[in-house]
């Protein structure tokens, strides 16, 4: 529980979707086993360095290694001591909320109270046919499942009737987590309706700003907070997290040089664009990572400045960075994690204390 009148600590986090990009050095796809081992190692490094949160996403495609966040997070729980563990995101539209809650309650027990859930609709749609759901029910499924998940979080026995799953009659919901309730966030991409939903339900809002001018998304945070206020939620509990792509090196030039080939590799593959003539150019990349954009590539000072500028816009209390995209070598990710913890975070904390 947060103390009344006390500003929450600003948290730093890392997240990964576990993409299986083609290695630009060898031309071979990174294996799922290697990717998963490196994700666990990255979480260990983040934990040891003092990073606050580590998240893993959910996809159901052969070019991603992560389809079961709670399984991977349980492995990470055994390799770490203090870092909080979250999905990023759980595709709640096509998941049974009872199973989601029980999985993350189990994770909470295994991690001694460190589990969280970021729920969302997902950027891809492959889970709908895979699990037998209709795209026509896209919005209704998410809202019903979110409502049920919150009820499961609050009650150890539950009676429930909805439109999309079997009824519950005084059902026992086990196990119960160590935390009195699992923290639940809603991942928001860019729609006011999603921001308003997060506010209405009183969850945290994890706002993805992967590129472009972040100031253009200020209206989403305002929508979120107004919806939360209208629903009667304590404004102090309406927490905003920002999630971004990026990479950190000692200098901005070094960061650009090291990250550009992998970012271009990632955008080419995951935009479904395999034409050499359409590959992201270096000039275009440098514009995307310019000083006033959300793409967080640069020196620790440059990254800290971007975070602080965004804090003036959003008043967020958490910043999560995805750096391991496009096949960036693990050694470089490890160095970037160290810089985030030892150089970026101290600058931001010092400036926010002022």
Distance between the termini: 25 Å
Query: What is the mean pLDDT?
Result: 94
Helical element count? 11
Number of strands: 12
Label the overall shape: globular
| Class inferred from helices and paired strands | alpha/beta
Which percent range fits the helix content? Answer: 40-55%
Biggest β-sheet: strands ordered side by side in the sheet: 1-2-3-5-8-9-10-12
Order of helices and strands: EHEHEEHEHHEEEHEHEHHEHEH
Describe the structure.
- This protein has helices at residues 32-49, 69-79, 97-110, 127-131, 138-154, 192-201, 218-230, 252-270, 282-288, 300-314, 330-353, and strands at 11-16, 53-56, 84-87, 90-91, 115-120, 157-160, 168-172, 184-188, 204-208, 240-248, 296-298, 318-322.
- By secondary structure, the chain is of the alpha/beta class.
- The protein has an eight-stranded parallel beta barrel, surrounded by eight helices. A two-stranded antiparallel ribbon has the order 6-7.
- Helix 1 (32-49) packs parallel to helix 11 (330-353) and helix 6 (192-201) runs parallel beside helix 7.
- The radius of gyration is 20 Å and the shape is globular.
- It starts with 10 loop residues before the first strand and ends with a helix.
- Residues 1-5 and 273-277 have low confidence and may be disordered.
Keywords:
globular; disordered N terminus; eight-stranded parallel beta barrel; 354 residues; alpha/beta
């Amino acid at each position: 529980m947060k103390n009344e009148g006390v500003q929450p600590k600003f948290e730093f986090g890392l997240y990964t979707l576990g993409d299986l990009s083609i290695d630009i050095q060898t031309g071979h796809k990174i294996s799922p086993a290697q990717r998963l081992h490196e994700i666990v190692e990255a979480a260990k490094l983040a934990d040891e360095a003092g990073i606050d949160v580590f998240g893993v996403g959910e996809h159901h495609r052969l070019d991603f290694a992560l389809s079961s966040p709670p399984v991977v997070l349980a492995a990470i729980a055994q390799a770490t001591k203090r870092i909080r563990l979250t999905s990023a995101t759980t595709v709640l539209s096509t998941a049974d909320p009872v199973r989601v809650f029980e999985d993350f309650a189990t994770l909470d027990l295994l991690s001694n109270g460190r589990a969280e859930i970021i729920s969302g609709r997902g950027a891809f749609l492959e889970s709908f046919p895979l699990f037998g759901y209709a795209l026509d029910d896209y919005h209704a499924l998410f809202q019903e499942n979110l409502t049920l998940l919150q009820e499961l979080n609050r009650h150890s026995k539950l009676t429930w009737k909805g439109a999309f799953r079997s009824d519950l009659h005084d059902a026992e919901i086990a196990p119960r987590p160590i935390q009195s309730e699992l923290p639940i966030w809603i991942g928001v991409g860019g729609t006011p309706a999603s921001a308003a939903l997060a506010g209405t339900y009183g969850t945290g809002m994890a706002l993805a700003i992967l590129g472009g001018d972040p100031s253009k998304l200020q209206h989403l945070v305002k929508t979120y907070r107004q919806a939360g206020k209208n629903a009667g939620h304590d404004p102090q509990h309406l927490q905003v997290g920002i999630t971004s792509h990026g990479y950190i090196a000692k200098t901005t030039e070094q960061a650009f040089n090291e990250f550009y080939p992998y970012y271009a590799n990632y955008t080419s593959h995951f935009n479904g664009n395999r034409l050499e003539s359409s590959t992201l150019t270096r000039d275009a990349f440098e514009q995307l990572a310019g000083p006033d954009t959300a793409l967080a590539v640069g020196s620790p000072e440059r990254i800290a400045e971007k975070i602080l500028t965004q804090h003036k816009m959003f008043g967020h209390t958490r910043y999560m960075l995805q750096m391991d995209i496009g096949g960036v070598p693990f050694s470089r990710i490890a160095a970037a994690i160290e810089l985030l913890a030892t150089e970026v975070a101290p600058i931001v904390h010092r400036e926010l204390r002022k």
